[in-house]
Design brief:
Low-confidence stretches: none
Strand content: under 5%
Number of domains: 2
Helix content: 55-70%
CATH architecture of the largest domain: Up-down Bundle
Number of strands: 0
Radius of gyration: 17 Å
Order of helices and strands: HHHHHHHHH
CATH topology of the largest domain: AhpD-like
Oligomer: single chain
CATH class of the largest domain: Mainly Alpha
CATH superfamily of the largest domain: AhpD-like
Number of helices: 9
């Protein structure tokens, strides 16, 4: 019987990744000034990296959510899935790039009351869709819609769950180390 050991992947680079993954890594370097460890690991399978980046970019551009709401969705899903890497990364993005109030990101990270009622409803619904595997009750759907969200936003949450499922599962299996850039917002599952 094999002993339990942490699976590790080679972190691909622009130079040694296949053509498609190399281009994605190059674009990440240009856009973010770095290649996140998650991308470098995902580059070992172009279907995963390409699918993740395409879905992530589409969510950012087409979900119907503001950048702040997008981070609430991603953080809430990552919390529910207990993804330490994504909690750190999206806390950083929320704080530094999309101006989510720190009290909101901290509330999601600590599973405490979110001070903004609408963002609270979004977080709760994102967690419910994740934990119930896409089967919220009609009452839970109505509670979300009663806060001013629409059917399009329900679809946006579903898209967010799809994106984060790819990254959360990858990070769980391969225990992706948190990048230095995100280290100020390290989070440990409870």
């Amino acid at each position: 019987m094999k002993t339990m050991e942490t699976l590790r992947l080679e972190f691909k680079t622009i130079e040694n990744a296949d053509t498609v993954s190399g281009k994605i890594l190059e674009n990440a370097q240009k856009k973010m000034g770095m290649i996140p460890n998650m991308y470098a690991g995902m580059a070992n399978n172009t279907a995963l990296l390409d699918g993740y980046v395409a879905a992530y970019n589409s969510f950012r551009e087409n979900s119907g959510f503001t950048p702040q709401e997008q981070e609430v969705v991603f953080l809430s899903i990552a919390f529910e899935n207990q993804c330490e890497y994504c909690m750190a990364a999206h806390s950083f993005v929320g704080d530094k790039m999309t101006n989510v109030p720190t009290e909101v990101t901290d509330a999601i990270r600590n599973n405490t009351e979110i001070p903004d009622q609408k963002l609270k409803a979004l977080s709760v619904f994102s967690k419910i869709v994740t934990s119930k595997r896409g089967m919220p009750s009609q009452i839970e759907i109505n509670n979300f819609l009663n806060e001013g969200y629409t059917k399009k936003h329900i679809l946006g949450v579903i898209a967010g769950v799809g994106v984060k499922t790819m990254s959360n599962y990858f990070n769980h299996i391969f225990k992706t180390p948190v990048d230095d850039a995100f280290s100020a917002r390290i989070w440990e599952k409870r």
